Amino acid sequence: MSAIKLTKRxxxxxxxxxxxxxxxxxxxxxxxxxxxxxxxxxxSVVVAWGYATTVASLLLALLMPFLGSIADLKGNKxxxxxxxxxxxxxxLACMGIPGNAMVFLVMYVVATIMLNASxxxxxxxxxxATDSEDRYDEVSSQGYxxxxxxxxxxxxxxxxxxxxxxxxxxxxxxxxxxxxxxTAVWWVVFSVPVLKxxxxxxxxxxxxxxxxxxxxxxxxxxxxxxADKRVFMFMLxxxxxxxxxxxxxxxxxxxxxxxxxxxxxxxxxxxVTQFVAFPSAIAYGRLAGKFGTKRMLLIAIFAYFCxxxxxxxxxxxxxxxxxxxxxxxxFQGGIQALSRSEFGKLIPKEHANExxxxxxxxxxxxxxxxxxxxxxxxxxxxxxxxxVLSIAVLFIIGFVLMxxxxxx
Length: 408
Hints:
This protein is mostly helical. The chain contains 17 helices and no strands.
């Protein structure tokens, strides 16, 4: 499949992936390192970070279907996107102010909720940014691809400050605090194109009883999802396999820290993931056009199962962590992008936010399960490798369910 020529709206939509991905990258690298530095001595970073991520994901899963129903009303999608970006960016910029680890975690949880809320509204904008379902896979994949490579720009600046700031009298923790501000500004700047150039073309008309009608619409959407076997089976499969993906993303740095791998090695390896993911995500979008989206998703799920086994049984040093980072980069963008675009093909466009709200429950609530499993098994056994191993069964279930999704 040849590359498509992107329109101005599609490029503007893709730009937001560049902006928000900088926060995602920071959250999986420098933020856990900063938290471990201000946390009480002797506390387990994996356990605390896992529980914090669990709380953020659970709150988001409970809120998003209702907010998604409201966002489907005419003119609301962009307002909610602006609110979530603004609140999240301010909190991110201010996270370096408190010296207390618990206060920091609370601010991180709320900022993460705002980030992921914005992603639900943003994902639903895919159907407004492009006019043809045939373009969904390619545009979605381009978004993830440019998000990976674009997020490296502020991150490299932040990394230089962290690694070499002492040469200019800047301590490591102060450098990370500055990184919070740099990333927040980057996030806001790259949100401007989508807010300016992409408009809500699929919507429900506004009603007099806003909240009552939102709840009624939410219940109707839930019934439609359960009645549509293709949508329901896809979301059920997504629930399990995306759990493992998100858990690996959020817990990789903490896991590496528990294994005694140096923070510099961890951060540089995860930076390599971004560069590998850039061409891989684009390639995945084009391969989906040739071989089918479902087949490419099955390949990615199986690959992640193998990656989990490698992390649990063989990852013991920085060298193996680098291998892990490269392997994750090969499939991370593809599995996320194709899941997003395939779901957009299955749903009624005027109810996109409601459907993506439920889609987010299956994605984000699953992350509650994954991080909780890792935290609980690590805490019980005292061995983080056993916690990581628990993720493998989720990929097995996701693979089996995906094979049962009807083709038509």
